[in-house]
Design the sequence.
């Protein structure tokens, strides 16, 4: 039996909003890329480096946030990150030198970004069992909404107010929205006298958890499967965040107007919504490994096509294929960690997996910017991204179920 209304849906709604606000702000940075470069004359590697530092800080702080979420819950953590993220964008409007860009966006905003994934998805993993993938998918639709609307709104603000005042507006909106939605968050259903999925009595736990119990960090760190997932996350995040930062300047290099170039990024966000819903539900049916392999195959196809794309319609077709894979990948990893290692230390374990990913995500845009500065082209970058998807596929293919004797 289930209650008439399950509070877990409030958790999903709050997670959706947090994802939309944070990722919308993250994607807005790519829209301002050319304007910052034009005003200061900085290289693309310099500007990309700030986003790389932000991702590195997001991953490092995410490990701590995941650990704290296991202990004290998400409400305070989301509120604190709101202050960091809002302040980062407010101060971004005042920068005059590269070190200031690195401090306000790379460090402050990076810390602010750290909770949007590990806190929301780890919390949802505790509130839902049988529908964990589907609910995670709905939360990650918030990311797709942010990807869709963020560049569009940023472009509108840029046109009307310029890039500096646009960041003042974005920072203030972040601060208000996240402080309000943080009040809805709760660590787990037991905190409110409830059970996962809104069950009245304990029954039918998730059969997919391979050991029948939750692994703590010490146990997970001793098995190959955990580090295989971490390395795969590194490779794929290298690809994903390189595209997030560089696809708009690449599109403009090919002659697309700013609005059309931002439209490529928005298309990725819009299609990723479909990927999140479809692959989240698929995760509940076919398991995390198979769902992740599907996403990697589509990612590979998109990068092969990107190397041929030279016109607007070809870039938008890339955005459709890539966007589905992008959305699916970000949805299936958290349920996969819960499926393979349990939920008792999910915040900490998922935080480490995300940290490995953000290491890749921080290196990717920086390497891509440096390669462009040297070669004047992204072709070598796209070849590297294609190769990394092959590595990720090979790693996941050899992943085998955890057995009790391995612990």
Sequence:
């Amino acid at each position: 039996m289930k209650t008439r209304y399950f509070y877990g849906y409030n958790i999903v709604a709050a997670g959706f909003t947090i994802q939309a606000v944070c990722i919308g702000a993250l994607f807005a940075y790519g829209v301002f890329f050319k304007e910052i470069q034009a005003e200061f004359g900085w290289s693309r590697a310099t500007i990309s480096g700030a986003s790389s530092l932000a991702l590195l800080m997001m991953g490092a702080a995410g490990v701590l946030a995941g650990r704290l979420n296991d202990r004290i819950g998400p409400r305070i953590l989301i509120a604190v990150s709101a202050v960091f993220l809002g302040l980062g964008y407010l101060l971004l409007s005042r920068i005059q030198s590269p070190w200031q860009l690195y401090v306000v966006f790379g460090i402050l905003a990076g810390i602010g970004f750290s909770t949007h994934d590990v806190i929301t998805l780890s919390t949802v993993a505790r509130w839902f069992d049988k529908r964990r993938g589907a609910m995670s998918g709905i939360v990650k639709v918030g990311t797709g909404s942010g990807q869709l609307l963020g560049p569009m709104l940023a472009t509108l603000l840029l046109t009307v107010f310029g890039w500096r005042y646009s960041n003042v507006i974005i920072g203030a909106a972040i601060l208000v929205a996240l402080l309000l939605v943080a009040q809805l968050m709760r660590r787990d259903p037991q905190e409110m006298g409830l059970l996962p999925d809104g069950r009245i009595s304990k029954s039918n736990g998730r059969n997919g958890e391979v050991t029948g119990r939750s692994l703590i960090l010490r146990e997970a760190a001793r098995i190959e499967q955990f580090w295989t997932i971490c390395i795969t996350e590194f490779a794929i995040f290298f690809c994903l965040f390189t595209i997030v930062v560089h696809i708009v300047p690449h599109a403009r290099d090919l002659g697309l107007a700013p609005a059309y170039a931002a439209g490529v990024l928005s298309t990725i966000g819009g299609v990723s919504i479909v990927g999140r819903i479809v692959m989240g539900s698929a995760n509940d049916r076919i398991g995390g490994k198979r769902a992740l392999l599907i996403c990697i195959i589509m990612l590979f196809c998109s990068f092969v096509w990107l190397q041929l794309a030279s016109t607007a319609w070809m870039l938008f077709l890339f955005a459709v294929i890539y966007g589905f894979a992008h959305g699916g990948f970000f949805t299936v990893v958290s349920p996969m960690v819960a499926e393979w290692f349990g939920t008792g230390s999910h915040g900490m374990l998922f935080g480490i997996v995300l940290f490995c990913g953000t290491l890749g995500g921080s290196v990717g845009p920086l390497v891509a910017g440096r390669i462009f500065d040297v070669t004047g082209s992204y072709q070598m970058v796209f070849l590297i991204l294609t190769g990394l998807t092959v590595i990720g596929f090979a790693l996941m293919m050899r992943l085998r179920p955890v057995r009790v004797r391995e612990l």
